[in-house]
Amino acid sequence: MIFADKLIRLRKKSGWSQEELAEKMNVSRQAVSKWEGAQTVPELEKILQLSALFGVTTDYLLKDELEQEEYAPCGEERAIKRVTLAQAQEYLQWRGKAAVLIAAGAFLCIVAILPLLLLGGAAATGAAAVSGGVAASVGLCALAVLVAAGVALFVWCGFRNAPYAFIDTEPFETEYGVRGMVAQKKKDFHGAYAVCNIVATCLCILSPVPLFLSILTGEKTFLPVLLLCLSILLAGVGAVLFILCGVRWASMGKLLQEEDYSVAEKKRSGVKEAVATAYWLLAVAVYLAWSFASGRWDVTWLVWPVAGVLYAVLESVLRLILWRKDGQES
User: Fold this and answer.
1) Per-residue pLDDT reduced to its tens digit, 23-49
2) CA 266, 154, 317, 255: dihedral to nearest 10 degrees?
3) 298 pLDDT exceeds 70?
4) Can you say whether the dihedral through the CA atoms of 306, 311, 316, 317 is positive or negative?
5) What percent of the chain is modeled with pLDDT above 70?
6) Predicted local confidence at residue 188, as pLDDT
């Protein structure tokens, strides 16, 4: 009952109606009405969102005494950021362009090995009048240039996305009409998103087929090298499709603060990002160490699909641990 009285007082002090508060909290007006009628109590995630929205402490909201508002320390009336309709449209437009740039960067990094494979294979099979040393030198230079170009695209996207970084890490509220616009766009994009993921998954599953065929040929010709390159290209196209649809889908989920982009998930994101950074740096170290030690660049690329599968397992375990920790703390 005390919580309901506090919520009514805070809402009226802010000058919002139940409908406006429901819009900001991403709930129905009936849910707000039940909170204020002491029929239900919001879950922890919504308590945190109310705390950020009104700039008060969670202790104030949860205490059983009706007292003056306890504002967050350091004058932090949590001037929570507001996303206007124009900003939301601009953000979605930018993320559509970013999806293309990120996909291009990933594709460049994936196919960076192809010049080395093609030149090395041509030199080894006599398909081209080039020595092994020249083939290796030119191939490694091309690899470095392509990877550098891909990384440059990633860095540029990071800088360009800086004004919207708070959407990934902080609670925020949206002006009236934003949620409806984004929800409609997400609904319209759902079909294309599903098709894109299905095609990308099929390409990734089928990508080893040319590699298997190259093993079956058993010929010391240039054909196995071409089939290996085709395998890498298929995997690269699959990755591009995943990124093109995934980045756009994620941008809409972030604005709606749904699923992996809810307030509770944002609290966990710091730990997940640190683990992901360490994991992929280790994967790069293993790939480079194995490649330079063995010289088998045509084989060591298998590190990446294996690392991808293991990362999915690691992410699931990490999420389970964080959920369990949050449950114990609450």
Assistant:
1) 777 788 888 888 888 888 888 778 877
2) 30
3) no
4) positive
5) 83
6) 94
- Residue 263's pLDDT is 56
Name the amino acid, one letter, at 285: A
Considering only residues 320 and 208, tell me which one the structure prediction assigns the higher pLDDT: 208
Residue 75, pLDDT score: 40
| AA identity, residue 23 | E
Q: 150 exposed, middle or buried (CB, 10 Å; 0-12, 13-18, 19+)?
A: buried
Q: What is the 3-state secondary structure (H, E, C) of 85-152?
A: HHHHHHHHHHHHHHHHHHHHHHHHHHHCCHHHHHHHHHHHHCCCCCCHHHHHHHHHHHHHHHHHHHHH
**SS in 3 state form for the chain?**
CHHHHHHHHHHHHHCCCHHHHHHHHCCCHHHHHHHHCCCCCCCHHHHHHHHHHHCECHHHHHCCCCCCCCECCCCCCCCCEEECHHHHHHHHHHHHHHHHHHHHHHHHHHHCCHHHHHHHHHHHHCCCCCCHHHHHHHHHHHHHHHHHHHHHHHHHHHHHCHHHHHHHHCCEEECCCHHHHHHHHHHHHHHHHHHHHHHHHHHHHHCHHHHHHHHHHCCCCCHHHHHHHHHHHHHHHHHHHHHHHHHHHHHHHHHHCCHHHCHHHHHHHHHHHHHHHHHHHHHHHHHHHHHHHHCCHHHHCCHHHHHHHHHHHHHHHHHHHHHHHHHHHC
Judged by average pLDDT, the poorest of 40-44, 212-216, 251-255 is 212-216
pLDDT of residue 90: 93
The mean pLDDT value for 131-145 works out to 86
The owner of tokens 């089939």 is 227
Residue bearing the bigger pLDDT, 61 or 248: 248
